[in-house]
Amino acid sequence: MSLIELHYDVPGDDFTRAGEASGSVKAQLKKLGFDPGVIRNVVIALYEGEINMVIHAGGGEIDVSIDPDQIRMVLRDHGPGIPDVALAMQEGYSTAPDNVRALGFGAGMGLPNIKKYTDEMRIDTEIGVGTTMYLRVDVKN
Amino acid sequence: MTVREFAALQNLQVLVEGDLSREIGGGYCGDLLSWVMSRAQSDDCWFTVMGNVNAVAVSVLADCACIVLCENAALDEDAKTKAREQGVNVLTSEENAYTLAVSLGKAL
Predict the structure, then answer these.
(1) Closest CA to B27 of B12, B55, B42, B46
(2) In the CATH scheme, what architecture does the domain B3-107 have?
(3) Which of A42, A74, A126, B38 is deepest in the core (most CB within 10 A)?
């Protein structure tokens, strides 16, 4: 059992609400006195994950476990799955449609950013079933 | 320099007033939201043409001092609402990002 456990439902195709989970987690971590660098890493990874859920998967769920030494996040969706994870991890590769690009997303930086700002990133994905991403950010002294 | 002082210096119009007494620590220019979020620093004045609700979210998450919409780029209605809710300073100018960033750089 972690110190604090948070759960969020991310609605699909609703860009106006994307970022609510990240914002809430940011506020919690701030309140708990976490280092701004740690908060930044968590928030960037989480927001990219939220946006991916909205763009590609019709929404999903996020669980965040906060402990003094690490923050763990599980992002689960029931979207189409990722056919080629290695390709999706390449900076600049994107399958986002034009309307999403016009909003300032779809630059192919989502998954690379998540990897860059976390200490562990694991993706379980199955075509037609969905994707679950396990993320961990360590609190380094 | 505060957001209010920079607004006066560059004749920026305030579209949403959060905390105009907030100090500006630096500046960042960019329109790709993932790029900006991972690179803009806390207290930056963010120059962009992205006036949508996601830009407001990125500003909050990156902890920018304000958003300056360059070249009279529009602020969407739902973005305005979200900025009000979140207390985000949003300003606008007819100048481009280069001109505004140079001005800020000289002033800081």
Answers:
(1) B46
(2) 3-Layer(aba) Sandwich (3.40)
(3) A42
